[in-house]
């Protein structure tokens, strides 16, 4: 039996009926990994461990015992999230031999729910990029077309889930690193409100912006994972489209879109309107200017503290300087050199954290309150995937070469800086056959409601043909 397009609940039903075993699930996943090794989705594969766990869980099930909602389900984990006994490279050469002896808290929660970790996925080096063109462990190929970028920095996780090398995936999101690869590979990507999920056991670069997030094939699975990772498994929200008000901030979020993304987004907006959603055309004034003042200053300043402490604690033979000398990606090397030079002073950082970021947070808060909207909606990325070769610095958008990193992150970064939840939902494919997603963002702490809204939008998308 194929595992294509099955949700966790559907797989659990198949296993409870005796139509599928966890061992078969793992074997099929390993076959897919081998068949698609040119995608470079994984850095480490735990073949023996995953098979042994699967057999154990099958025996438990045969004895009438199940551990939790993820009993025997395969998870792919980004290689900057600690899994005990498996290397944690964070996609960089200096950390290739580091093996944590303790699970990250989020991994412990997954295992307690019955998950099987099949391996650690490839990523943009140190999570400092959005293409996952990794110079040490191989460029991650898009699930639809392997010569195109997978997005990043959680590109390996997205490709693994999209090609059914795992049922569900875990990534991290600093400025879009879960939502961008989810969008470019036709998946659901969820960034929770900041601090909703535990952050212990991560190779972090910004305590203000970093968060773990799921990459999955359905919002049902995102809801399941959100409950497990947050510890709120007993809570659930339901909504109906006809009772919703959704903001459409066209200025900034809808600027300079790939034509088919613009066209099919407008088709969806019309369908939402026909379904009873009240669309509120109102902009987030000056959001681009505010956002630009926050992103890099926060990450560059916090990386020095976070990454230095991480190295001291876990790899005392290395330093931030020695790590920087082993970085393979020129763009990442430049960024870490800026970190080492202290390019962002304490005064600049504190002004951003204490004055400018609160302005952005208040802008969102006022928007949701004054416009009385449940969420805002916009394309996750302005463009679909572009070829790996030639996309290191710039990509083509509407006949012009534009900078790769800020262009892909344009729509996902503001909510990251504000710490509010964002959900990317697969919408359609562009004229070149590559997927793209639509994102909804909600007020801080509205995670379960945002997922419930996303579930209804997903149903609408699935019941209609958007081009």
Overall SS class: alpha/beta
Major beta sheet summary: 11 strands, mixed
The rounded Rg comes to 21 Å
CATH architectural label of the largest domain: Alpha-Beta Complex
Portion in strands: 5-15%
Q: Determine the mean pLDDT.
A: 96
Indicate the percent of residues in helices.
40-55%
Brief digest:
The chain is α/β, with parallel strands linked by helices and 467 residues long. It is built from 16 helices and 15 strands. The strands form three sheets. The protein has an eleven-stranded mixed sheet with strand order 1-3-2-6-8-7-14-15-11-9-10, sandwiched between helices. Strands 4-5 form a two-stranded antiparallel ribbon.
How would you describe what is shown here?
The protein is built from 16 helices and 15 strands. The two termini are 31 Å apart. It has an eleven-stranded mixed sheet, sandwiched between helices. It is an alpha/beta fold and 467 residues long.
Record the SSE blueprint:
Elements: H1 8-16, H2 22-35, E1 42-45, H3 47-62, E2 74-78, H4 105-112, E3 116-121, E4 133-134, E5 138-139, H5 155-162, E6 168-173, H6 179-184, E7 188-191, E8 211-216, H7 219-230, E9 245-247, H8 250-253, H9 259-274, E10 278-280, H10 287-314, H11 320-325, H12 330-340, H13 346-370, E11 375-379, E12 394-397, E13 400-403, H14 404-409, H15 413-418, E14 422-429, E15 435-441, H16 447-463
Parallel strand pairs: 2-3, 2-6, 9-10, 9-11
Antiparallel strand pairs: 1-3, 4-5, 6-8, 7-8, 7-14, 11-15, 12-13, 14-15
């Amino acid at each position: 039996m194929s595992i294509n397009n099955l949700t966790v609940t559907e797989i659990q039903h198949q296993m409870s009926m005796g139509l599928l075993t966890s061992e078969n699930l793992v074997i099929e996943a390993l076959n897919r990994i081998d068949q698609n090794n040119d995608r470079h989705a994984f850095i480490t594969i735990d073949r023996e461990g995953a098979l042994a766990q699967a057999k154990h869980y099958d025996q438990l099930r045969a004895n009438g015992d199940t551990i939790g909602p993820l009993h025997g389900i395969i998870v792919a984990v980004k290689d900057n999230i600690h899994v005990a006994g498996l290397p944690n490279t964070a996609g960089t050469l200096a950390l290739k031999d580091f093996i944590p002896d303790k699970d990250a808290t989020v991994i412990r929660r997954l295992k307690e729910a019955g998950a099987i970790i099949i391996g650690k996925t490839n990523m943009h080096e140190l999570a400092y990029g959005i293409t996952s063109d990794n110079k040490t462990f191989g460029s991650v190929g898009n699930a639809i077309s392997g010569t195109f970028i997978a997005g990043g920095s959680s590109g390996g996780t997205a490709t693994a889930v999209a090609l059914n090398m795992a049922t569900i995936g875990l990534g991290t999101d600093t400025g879009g690193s879960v939502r961008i690869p989810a969008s470019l590979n036709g998946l659901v990507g969820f960034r929770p409100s900041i601090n909703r999920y535990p952050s212990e056991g991560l190779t972090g670069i910004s305590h203000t912006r970093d968060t773990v997030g799921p990459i999955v094939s359905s919002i049902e699975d995102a809801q399941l994972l959100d409950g497990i990772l947050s510890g709120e498994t007993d809570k659930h929200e339901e909504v109906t489209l006809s009772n919703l008000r959704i903001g459409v901030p066209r200025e900034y979020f809808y600027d300079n879109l790939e034509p088919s993304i613009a066209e099919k987004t407008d088709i969806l907006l019309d369908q939402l309107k026909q379904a009873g959603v009240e669309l509120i055309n109102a902009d987030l004034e000056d959001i681009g200017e505010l956002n630009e003042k926050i992103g890099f200053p926060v990450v560059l300043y916090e990386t020095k503290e976070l990454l230095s402490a991480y190295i001291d604690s876990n790899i005392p033979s290395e330093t931030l300087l020695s790590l920087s000398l082993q970085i393979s990606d020129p763009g990442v090397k430049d960024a870490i050199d800026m970190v080492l030079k202290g390019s962002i002073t304490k005064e600049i950082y504190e002004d951003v954290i204490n004055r400018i970021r609160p302005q952005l947070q208040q802008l969102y808060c006022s928007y949701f309150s004054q416009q009385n909207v449940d969420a805002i909606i916009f394309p996750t990325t302005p463009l679909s995937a572009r070829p790996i070769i030639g996309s290191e610095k710039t990509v083509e958008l509407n006949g012009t070469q534009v900078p790769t990193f800020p262009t892909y992150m344009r729509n996902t970064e503001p909510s990251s800086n504000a710490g509010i939840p964002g959900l990317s939902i697969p919408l359609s494919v562009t004229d070149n056959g590559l997927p793209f997603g639509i994102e909804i963002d909600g007020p801080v702490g509205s995670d379960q409601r945002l997922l419930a809204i996303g579930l209804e939008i997903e149903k609408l998308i699935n019941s209609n043909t958007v081009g």
